[in-house]
């Protein structure tokens, strides 16, 4: 379950509504993949197409693209157009918990966290700060975000904050300062923990440390540290990003050896380690690592005697991001900014989850519920798909 990481945010220029009319439609659907109706040769990339190869120099298998939309479960659709009629904004929910949708309003001199109650059709402020909030996510009854202060000559001070949704209690989990062009941490979550990477930098070295916070015990534990020497010749390891899941931590790193740099994607448990560049997004399940690049979604097996699977996007310039595993072999991702896709790696198929829209948000998945928003012109709808009843 992820937030997301490359998500844009829902920004309002002013606060003008506290309650509003929100119409809700409900679609009862059979939780099954649509028939394997294959699109015409002009619409799909056939399995005979040359695709990305794996490390064994085997031909990757091109997933079969289906034309008919897939239905994964009962879908509730909320029309939020009336809420946004006075604003030119796009909705991108940062977290959804029960009947609450959390999003950010980033103003020039302050940041506000809102929650919209889909049942009561009520919008309210849950937290406001004079600092910037570059990212927000959540897991269970906890909402988490990063706050950053104005840059100074020495760096950017940051803090990681947590809101317990059921009690409205806000606490600070960690603080630090990003120096020498390092970035503030980004948070990722699983069902049991929160994780982030801190980077303590001097003129001589940068120490990257992976930290986890247990939701059960409230204890912060450093998992592992990596050192990059930053003298005349760089040597060591620098961490760019990480993804966390119930199956473990995955790192996107730079390995420096006598000044030479190699980008590597690797799991902390050692189950996967490969040189790769041009990553846009990545995520891990128990059996696959999914990679989003320009033009391709790549699914590489972990601990399986299987070939790499590949999905070719509609063009070589189309980005793949918003990767969310629903199970070990079922995954949602966004193709460009216009459509969500569903891949069944066991069946080796890909089918559209949404129509081709003007703007589709990065999806969120947590506790059996998939959430995303769609904007077409002045109409914005928010969609919740209940996968629990579908045994996904």
Whole-number mean pLDDT: 83
Summing up helix and strand content along with how strands pair, one would put the structural category as mainly beta
What overall form do the CA principal axes indicate?
A: globular
Euclidean distance between termini CA atoms: 14 Å
Number of strands: 32
Beta content: over 45%
How much helical structure, as a percent, in the residues? under 10%
Number of helices: 0
**Radius of gyration based on Cα positions:** 21 Å
Low-pLDDT segments:
1-57, 86-90
Major β-sheet strand ordering: 13-14-15-16-17-18-19-20
**Major sheet:** 8 strands, antiparallel
Summarize the helices and strands and which ones pair or pack.
Layout: E1 23-27, E2 61-62, E3 64-65, E4 74-79, E5 95-97, E6 100-106, E7 111-117, E8 122-129, E9 132-139, E10 142-148, E11 156-164, E12 169-178, E13 188-189, E14 193-201, E15 205-214, E16 220-230, E17 234-245, E18 248-257, E19 260-267, E20 273-275, E21 281-284, E22 288-292, E23 296-301, E24 309-312, E25 320-325, E26 330-335, E27 339-344, E28 349-352, E29 359-360, E30 364-366, E31 369-376, E32 379-386
Parallel strand pairs: 2-24, 3-28
Antiparallel strand pairs: 1-4, 4-32, 5-6, 6-7, 7-8, 9-10, 10-11, 11-12, 13-14, 14-15, 15-16, 16-17, 17-18, 18-19, 19-20, 21-22, 22-23, 23-24, 25-26, 26-27, 27-28, 29-31, 30-31, 31-32
């Amino acid at each position: 379950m992820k937030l997301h990481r490359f998500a844009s945010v829902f920004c309002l220029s002013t606060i003008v509504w506290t309650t509003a009319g929100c119409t809700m439609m409900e679609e009862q659907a059979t939780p099954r993949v649509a028939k394997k109706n294959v699109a015409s040769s002009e619409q799909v990339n056939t399995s005979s197409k040359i695709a990305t190869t794996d490390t064994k120099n085997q031909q990757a298998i091109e997933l079969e693209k289906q034309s008919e939309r897939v239905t994964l479960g009962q879908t509730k659709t909320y029309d939020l157009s009336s809420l946004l009629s006075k604003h030119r904004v796009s909705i991108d929910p940062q977290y959804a918990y029960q009947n609450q949708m959390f999003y950010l309003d980033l103003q020039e001199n302050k940041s506000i966290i809102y929650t919209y109650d889909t049942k009561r059709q009520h919008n309210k402020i849950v937290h406001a700060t004079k600092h910037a909030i570059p990212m927000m996510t959540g897991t269970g009854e906890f909402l988490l975000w990063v706050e950053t202060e104005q840059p100074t000559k020495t760096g950017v001070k940051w803090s990681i904050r947590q809101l317990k949704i059921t009690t409205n209690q806000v606490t600070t989990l960690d603080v630090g300062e990003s120096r020498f062009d390092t970035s503030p941490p980004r948070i990722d979550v699983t069902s049991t923990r929160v994780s982030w990477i801190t980077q303590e930098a001097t003129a001589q070295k940068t120490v990257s440390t992976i930290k986890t916070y247990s939701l059960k015990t409230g204890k912060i534990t450093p998992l592992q540290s990596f050192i990059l020497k930053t003298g005349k010749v760089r040597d060591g390891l620098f961490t760019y990003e990480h993804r966390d899941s119930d199956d473990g931590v995955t790192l996107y790193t730079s390995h420096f050896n006598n000044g030479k740099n190699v980008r590597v994607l690797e799991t902390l448990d050692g189950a996967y380690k490969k040189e790769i560049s041009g990553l846009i997004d990545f995520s891990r399940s128990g059996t696959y690592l999914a990679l989003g690049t320009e033009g391709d979604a790549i699914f590489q097996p972990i601990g399986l005697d299987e070939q790499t699977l590949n999905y070719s996007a509609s063009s070589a310039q189309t980005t793949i991001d918003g990767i969310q595993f629903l199970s070990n072999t079922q995954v949602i991702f966004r193709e460009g900014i216009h459509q969500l896709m569903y891949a069944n790696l066991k069946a080796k198929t890909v089918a559209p989850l949404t129509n081709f829209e003007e703007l589709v948000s990065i999806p969120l998945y947590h506790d059996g519920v998939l959430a995303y928003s769609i904007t077409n012109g002045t109409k914005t709808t928010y969609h919740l798909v209940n996968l629990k009843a579908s045994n996904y």
